[in-house]
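Lab meeting minutes (informal)
Scribe: AK
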Amino acid sequence: MNGKITLASQESERARRTFVCVLSALFVLSTCFTKFNPLKALLAQKEFWSFIFTDFIPPYLGKWRALFASVMQTLYMAMGATGVAAALSLVLGFLGSPVICRRRPINILVRGFASLLRNIPVLVWAFILVAAFGIGTAVGVLALVISTVGELTRYFIETLDEVAGENIEALDATGAGTLPVIAQAIMPAAMPSLIAWFLYCVELNIRASTVLGMVGAGGIGLLMTGYIKQYNYAAASTTIAAVAALIIGVNLLADYLRKIIL
């Protein structure tokens, strides 16, 4: 070691200053445009914490049966929607992968379809479906399926492209058909990554199903919204705690399964 300290170059230092200046200017412009006063928000903390500790705490546990039923409904919505979406996305993934399906128009069509689905927020799909079919758990599941198909199709295509190239070349040299190549070479190699993406989308859909319930798509969000509209904030705080516990539990389980699978 020569004991010298490497200093940042003038170009990188100038770039950092420029970034800080631009970021500061954007912050000032955004606060002026939205009329958001950070100082006023800090001074209003007293009312916020007073509301939390007066109305929200302690939580009310008297309606635990309805809470448990809503939690399970939310879990079923997320798992069911992700399972259906995974099956559809796997088929679309094969069609969208140029390594497997060597018809470029089909690849472009599938990728464009997936991009359309994933770039429209799930909450927008829920609003459209609730307006069309009314409130209910089935509407929430359908909204999650539509949104998740867009996400998983993209992830599956990327995964299949990564593992398919060398395997297909090796088996093509032996004269193997497309289906044997997929079943014996591609799927075994891609399965750990596909399962990991599936678990990731389960986590996302549990969070999303909570929000969907607040617009009438069933689950624990619907129960929470009902409590808030009734000004029963103590019961609403119980549902919020249940949502947090459910998400944390699913995250821990998903991490454990990833360690086993990967």
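Next up, CB showed the second protein from the same session:
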Amino acid sequence: MLLEEQALAIPALRKAGITVTALTTVYPGINDQHVEKIAERLAELGATTMLLAPFTPRADEPDLPPAPDSARLRDLAGLAAPYIKAGIAAAIPCGQPAGPCKGADAGQPPALPKPSADRPNVAVVSANGMDIDLHLGQAARALIYGPREDGLPCLLSTRSLPAPGGGGARWEKLADAFTDCFALLTSGAGENPRNILSRRGITVLVTNGNVEGTVDVLYGGGKKGKQCRK
């Protein structure tokens, strides 16, 4: 979503009575010096909370900036706090974005799934198009994010999910229709669909974060995600 569209969407969502939480991935040396101004602008638009997620570089991309340390994140949250409620999010998608993911050792988040030539895309279920706020069982369609012709990961299309009912057969049908996706983002999913989709090559990630911020993390963040949002 373009910045201009976000600036229009936040006031519209607030007018509709929807609470807006903005997730900002912090890239040292790229956008960390702008966090205070971003917080001020988000508050002006009507966002209620700002979560700062540390960018985590991949080992195979040594040219990207290092991850910000916790002290730097706390300092940035302090700069944002006069304008908006600020907190620190996990570095990866999980059920509790303000804390560590279950099963992860402190400071050692579990490895994220990665796109491949056969599965370059990510499916996201969202009610408002901005937040990952739908349980998989309630979703009728998914947003499909993936690399455009120029290689930048952006919103490509929407896709219908199989109709409710049918038990495991529904998730097998979903897997059949999403063979180009390596991950699916949702705010909740039962053990059965998680197991079926995992077996079929689709990792289900449970989070309640911002759509584009979380997708950005899955694709490694850094320069590519930053350019796409511009």
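CB comment: Residues 3-15 form the longest helix (13 residues).
No objections, moving on.
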